[in-house]
Structures are given as C-alpha cells and as structure tokens.
Amino acid sequence: MILERRAVEPFFKNGFVIGCEETRQGVVIDPGDEVDQLLAAVEHHKLTITNILLTHAHLDHVTGVRRAKAVLNVPVWLHRDDTPLYEHVVEQGQMFGIHVEPQPKIDRFYTKGGEGNEAAEAVVRFGRYGVRVLHTPGHSPGGVCLVVGKMEKDAPEILFVGDTLFAGSIGRTDLRGGDMETLLRSIRTVLFAFPDDTVVWSGHGEVTTIGRERRTNPFLVS
Ligand SMILES: [Zn+2]
Ligand SMILES: [Zn+2]
Q1: Is the peptide bond before 195 cis (omega within 30 degrees of 0)?
Q2: Nearest to 170 by CA among 215, 220, 206, 207
Q3: Among 82, 132, 146, 169, which is 20 to 30 Å from 29 by CA?
Q4: 201 Cα–ligand 1 center, Å
C-alpha cells in the first residue's frame, strides 16, 4: 500500500494519503494545514482519490477540507455525531486565536442513524483495499478509527485512529463532547480487539502498534 504522511505547524497533525499500488486509487485522511503537501503526494504517486475521510472534526483535522475538495472533487465523510463540531470550525479557531475558513458541507455520514455507540458499517474502497469504520467516541462524540486492509480473507489491517490513541498517550478529553471513561472504553473494547502486531497511525506523533500500547501505554496498562 502507498502511504504518505505530512504534518506542519502549528498543530503537527498527521494528514495521510493512502493508495492502492496496483490500481492507483486512493483516499485522503484528515486534510489540515498540510493539505497542499498531501495533494503533491497524490500527484507524485499519480493517484486517483475517491474519497476524503475524516476521523473527527477538531479544527486541526479539517482545515484543509475546502482545498482538498476543490482540487479532488470527491465526497467528504464524517461521523454524524461530530457535525456540530464541524459546523463550528470557525469558532473552534477563535478558541485558539486562529482564523479558520468555514468548510464545505459533509457529503456522507459513516452511520445513518447516528445513534450512540454502535459501530459504523460503511466500507469505502480504493482499488484492492477497503476501509472499515469503527465508532470510537471519547475524544470527540463522533470520533472514528479507520481500519484499512486488502479486501481478501485474513489480510493484515492497519489503523488510522485520529486522536483516540497516541504512541504512549491517549487523546485529550477536556474539549467539548470529550469524556475520559468513554475514551478508555473505546480503546479497550474496539482498538485492543486487534492483534498486537496491528500498525497504528495516530493523528499526532509517530507510528506505534496495538501490542506496544497494550503493554506500555501508561494510561492503559492495568
Ligand atoms: Zn482532536
Ligand atoms: Zn488533533
């Protein structure tokens, strides 16, 4: 799988381009201030992007949506429970003293009903790969983790977890709609159900694995 990560100041939030090495289809994950670098990576790999997928709607993860959508002209996906955050992205910016443009409307929601903790069922495809979407609230109400793997039996999967889990840490829960107990439950029941060697790409910082966090993350060792 083609995988490119970019992060720029001030938030050093990871934006991703992932693609199928055979068909050259791909998706963009969480375009923020680094959006132009992500678009350059798309061009470099000659990818056709099919979708823009958001892990959640905090401003650092969505400030590049307008630009990405304008260039790529593909659907933008979000969990319905983060719609209020997304629609108030300008106000989120004001909280940090940052000017943020309003972003284009969401085209598709991962869940239809938007009811609480049920796992979303949407599967987005790019070439030989598929993305399953799991609802992992706690950092934000509509936070999701994207599970990416080849569409074949027993293929290994990698996780894009947004700000749910970090190498050696967990997402903050002091922002609107955050809840520590909910976050810990999401990590323990949804993420820790994956095998130890599952690669985890977080919204900030370096890559890790489920096993390493299970064994060494100070917020999660019991
Ligand atoms: Zn966040
Ligand atoms: Zn973030």
Answers
A1: no
A2: 220
A3: 169
A4: 14
